[in-house]
């Protein structure tokens, strides 16, 4: 379907790819892997047509459709979430126009045996099928399923995109791309802004609905679940494996061992050849052999070793003061912002040495509770830190707190103590700051590089309670493994806020789920939690199915709030279109109630003025007539108000 032929790319005379060739077939699910800077994102840009190679070409059919999600992109903020997502279907109009033009051409066609006529029929059939798939009767339902799958609530659909963070707006762009159902889907780190449930939904979508997919991700579990082929970019070449990520790692290790043996043999050959040349360079009887060896040496193509092996490097947190038996105790902790409840009545106790995960959809309070623990925001309830607790906190904005005026090396040297100072270069190399990179000023680093540097700094601080908020977003798999092993060996207490299942697996023994204003404790690891949650969801579906067969009783409101929003039933029972119509009717009813109340207030005010005149002795016919008219109108408006109020209550209780 797409053919990459002898592709070469250079940046400032530095070769990124050299004579790379491979083919993307229909239905291929490909993981594009390699260390940072290998050229993965560049390859996706070339495949999408946004960047041209220095040499070579990309062969693809003229009618192929490609959807590309980059790591960063400019996003317009001129409409609502739903309307922005609906822009995904703008191609439908052009398809209909082309179909109409081809049908007109077909009417005048006479050569029914020609190849052109056959191609015309095939194109018309293709357009019919595409339009049938994009049938506008299913558009709103498809948008609704995709947005909710990616973590949006139905109440978010009518909100402006400008109210959402960059991560949430990236989800909108992802939704638009998925809804277009392109022939080839190119995704660059799609899970960075998704929670666990949204990642699982995306996995299901790719498995069941996507066609060809090429993706870059540092989420090992995600790659294993959705890809069947792995292409590694290394040293300007590619290595194509017809397996998913985990089998690829084993095959890659075997290749590296072979590569290292070949490199060592070649180095020995070079050394022996140079030695022979030096020993016999000035002997006339060996002149022919020396010249032959010189030519042989010139023809040798150096074998490159992919990367420095850091597999034996183990980071270990420095010794820290022993904390009390219970580093943290929460009793009835809750947080609200105005009328918005984030969570309430959070209660749990962590023992010294516990390693736990905070999981749940974005916006449900994970980072908020962390801020409560850190004392950054006020909260309800009681939260007590144990004796001698020293917290090491990695926030999502940790990179912004670095001193930008010093170098990478000095940043770490300033916090390193003891024997660890002799290993600073090794540690920086493991986190991709090897060689000259360690001498860079912090201010010139990218956002991802600053995040990695902040993580190294935290690793070297003497603490006994670690709180890590999304620590893996900018770390590659090798670095994540090093960090994971360091945390496993850490003898203090750990809270990890993360959506990375592979990182959490084997690291935590307890999971706290945030959702629906609650914080629920789940014993066991992350996959134990996901398994139970899946079973729970299935039982809820079965329960819903059985209930749906019974007559639906009138719901009884138990909400003590009196505002209209709080009295409305959960929108999950309604489709987006139904919810939209219902909200419109409610707004109309609320407006009718308000209008009636304003009229009543105005009439009552005038009635009081007339009563004051009558009390003062002004009983003229004009005053009496107006007073009588006002009293009649007041009764009529009271009746209108009662009717409007009853109509509103009926809508709220539907």
From TrEMBL:
<dbReference type="GO" id="GO:0016887">
    <property type="term" value="F:ATP hydrolysis activity"/>
</dbReference>
<dbReference type="InterPro" id="IPR017871">
    <property type="entry name" value="ABC_transporter-like_CS"/>
</dbReference>
<dbReference type="InterPro" id="IPR027417">
    <property type="entry name" value="P-loop_NTPase"/>
</dbReference>
<dbReference type="InterPro" id="IPR003593">
    <property type="entry name" value="AAA+_ATPase"/>
</dbReference>
<feature type="compositionally biased region" description="Polar residues">
    <location>
        <begin position="558"/>
        <end position="574"/>
    </location>
</feature>
<dbReference type="Pfam" id="PF00005">
    <property type="entry name" value="ABC_tran"/>
</dbReference>
<feature type="coiled-coil region">
    <location>
        <begin position="85"/>
        <end position="115"/>
    </location>
</feature>
<feature type="domain" description="ABC transporter">
    <location>
        <begin position="328"/>
        <end position="541"/>
    </location>
</feature>
<dbReference type="GO" id="GO:0005524">
    <property type="term" value="F:ATP binding"/>
</dbReference>
<dbReference type="Pfam" id="PF12848">
    <property type="entry name" value="ABC_tran_Xtn"/>
</dbReference>
<dbReference type="InterPro" id="IPR032781">
    <property type="entry name" value="ABC_tran_Xtn"/>
</dbReference>
<keyword id="KW-0067">ATP-binding</keyword>
<dbReference type="InterPro" id="IPR051309">
    <property type="entry name" value="ABCF_ATPase"/>
</dbReference>
<feature type="compositionally biased region" description="Basic and acidic residues">
    <location>
        <begin position="578"/>
        <end position="591"/>
    </location>
</feature>
<keyword id="KW-0547">Nucleotide-binding</keyword>
<feature type="region of interest" description="Disordered">
    <location>
        <begin position="542"/>
        <end position="591"/>
    </location>
</feature>
<protein>
    <recommendedName>
        <fullName>ABC transporter domain-containing protein</fullName>
    </recommendedName>
</protein>
<feature type="region of interest" description="Disordered">
    <location>
        <begin position="634"/>
        <end position="654"/>
    </location>
</feature>
<keyword id="KW-0175">Coiled coil</keyword>
<keyword id="KW-0677">Repeat</keyword>
<dbReference type="InterPro" id="IPR003439">
    <property type="entry name" value="ABC_transporter-like_ATP-bd"/>
</dbReference>
<feature type="compositionally biased region" description="Low complexity">
    <location>
        <begin position="645"/>
        <end position="654"/>
    </location>
</feature>
<feature type="domain" description="ABC transporter">
    <location>
        <begin position="2"/>
        <end position="260"/>
    </location>
</feature>
């Amino acid at each position: 379907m797409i053919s990459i032929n002898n592709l070469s790319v250079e940046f400032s005379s530095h070769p990124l790819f050299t004579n790379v060739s491979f083919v993307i077939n229909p239905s291929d699910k490909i993981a594009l892997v390699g260390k940072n800077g290998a050229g993965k994102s560049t390859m996706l840009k070339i495949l999408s047509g946004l960047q041209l190679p220095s040499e070579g070409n990309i062969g693809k059919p003229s009618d192929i459709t490609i959807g590309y999600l980059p790591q960063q992109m400019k996003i317009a903020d001129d409409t609502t979430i739903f309307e922005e997502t609906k822009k995904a279907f703008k191609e439908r109009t052009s398809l209909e126009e082309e179909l109409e033009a081809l049908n007109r051409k077909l009417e005048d066609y006479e050569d029914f045996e020609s190849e052109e006529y056959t191609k015309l029929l095939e194109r018309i059939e293709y357009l019919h099928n595409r339009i049938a798939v994009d049938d506008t009767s299913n558009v709103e339902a498809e948008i609704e399923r995709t947005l909710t799958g990616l973590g949006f609530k139905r109440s978010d659909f009518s909100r402006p995109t400008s109210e959402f963070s960059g991560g949430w707006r990236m989800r909108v762009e992802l939704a638009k791309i998925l809804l277009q159902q392109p022939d080839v889907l190119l995704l660059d780190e799609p899970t960075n802004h998704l929670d666990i449930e949204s990642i699982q939904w995306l996995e299901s979508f790719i498995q069941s609905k996507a066609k060809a997919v090429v993706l870059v991700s540092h989420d090992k579990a995600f790659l294993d679940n959705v890809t069947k082929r792995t292409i590694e970019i290394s040293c300007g070449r590619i290595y194509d494996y017809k397996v998913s990520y985990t089998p690829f790692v084993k095959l890659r290790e075997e290749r590296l061992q072979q590569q290292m043996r070949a490199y060592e043999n070649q180095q020995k050959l070079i050394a022996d050849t140079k030695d022979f040349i030096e020993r016999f360079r000035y002997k006339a009887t060996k002149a022919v052999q020396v010249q032959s060896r010189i030519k042989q040496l010139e023809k040798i193509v150096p074998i490159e070793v992919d990367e420095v092996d850091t597999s034996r490097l183990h980071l270990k947190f420095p010794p820290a003061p022993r904390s009390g038996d219970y580093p943290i105790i929460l009793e009835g902790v809750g947080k609200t912002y105005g009328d918005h409840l984030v969570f309430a009545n959070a209660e749990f106790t962590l023992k010294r040495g516990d390693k736990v995960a905070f999981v749940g959809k974005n916006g449900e309070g994970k980072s908020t509770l962390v801020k409560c623990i850190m004392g950054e925001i006020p909260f309800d309830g009681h939260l007590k830190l144990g004796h001698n607790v020293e917290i090491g906190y990695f926030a999502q904005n940790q990179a912004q707190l670095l001193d930008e005026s010093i170098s990478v090396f000095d940043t770490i040297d300033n916090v390193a103590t003891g024997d660890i100072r002799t290993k600073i270069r090794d540690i920086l190399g493991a986190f991709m700051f090897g060689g000259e990179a360690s001498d860079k000023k912090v201010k010139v680093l990218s956002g991802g590089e600053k995040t990695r540097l902040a993580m190294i700094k935290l690793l070297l601080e003497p603490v006994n309670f670690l709180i890590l908020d999304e620590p893996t977003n900018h770390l590659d798999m090798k670095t994540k493994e090093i960090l994971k092993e360091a945390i496993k060996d850490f003898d203090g207490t750990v809270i990890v806020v993360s959506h990375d299942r592979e990182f959490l697996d084997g690291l935590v023994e307890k999971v706290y789920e945030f959702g629906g204003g609650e914080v629920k404790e789940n014993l066991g690891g992350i996959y134990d939690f996901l398994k139970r949650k899946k079973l729970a969801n299935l039982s809820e579906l079965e329960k819903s199915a059985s209930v749906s067969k019974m007559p639906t009783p009138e719901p009884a409101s138990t909400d003590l709030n009196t505002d209209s929003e709080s009295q409305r039933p959960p929108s999950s029972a309604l489709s987006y279109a139904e919810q939209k119509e219902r909200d419109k009717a409610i707004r109309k009813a609320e407006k009718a109630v308000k209008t009636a109340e304003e009229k009543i207030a105005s009439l009552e005010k005038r009635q009081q003025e007339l009563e004051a005149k009558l009390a003062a002795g002004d009983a003229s016919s004009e005053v009496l007539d107006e007073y009588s008219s006002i009293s009649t109108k007041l009764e009529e408006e009271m009746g209108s108000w009662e009717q409007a109020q009853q109509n509103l209550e009926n809508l709220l209780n539907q």
